[in-house]
Prior knowledge:
Elements: H1 2-38, H2 41-54, H3 56-79, H4 86-105, H5 107-142
Amino acid sequence: xxxxxxxxxIKSQIWFLKTKQKEELAxxxxxxxxxxxxxxxxxxxxxxxxEVGESPDLKSNLLNSAIGLSTGFISKKLMVGKTSNPIKNIxxxxxxxxxxNVVTKNSEKIISTGETLFQLIFKRKKDKKxxxxxxxxxxxxxx
Length: 143
């Protein structure tokens, strides 16, 4: 009777291990499929852009770089224009990258200075309007 119980026990353990092996193989195949999908170029690009969108520092750096590059490009076009002279083109390119580099590295200072100038200009206009209104009110009172 012991042999019967032991053989039944062994059979049940074999069945259990085979079932476990099938489940683990299915899980492994599923994980392999997920890994394969994640390494497709389009999915890598999607994930990269998702990470870029979620990172505020990276957004700020990209924005500053874009502002720097566009400022450099505009300054080159203003200085050189459309020319076929290779020396002017080289100088224009050097100026473009120099300005882009300066603007990118000092973008926070440039933005704060621009905001201050903007506020000063519009404050002066408001002050002038208030002064003109005060003068006109004084004239109306004198008459």
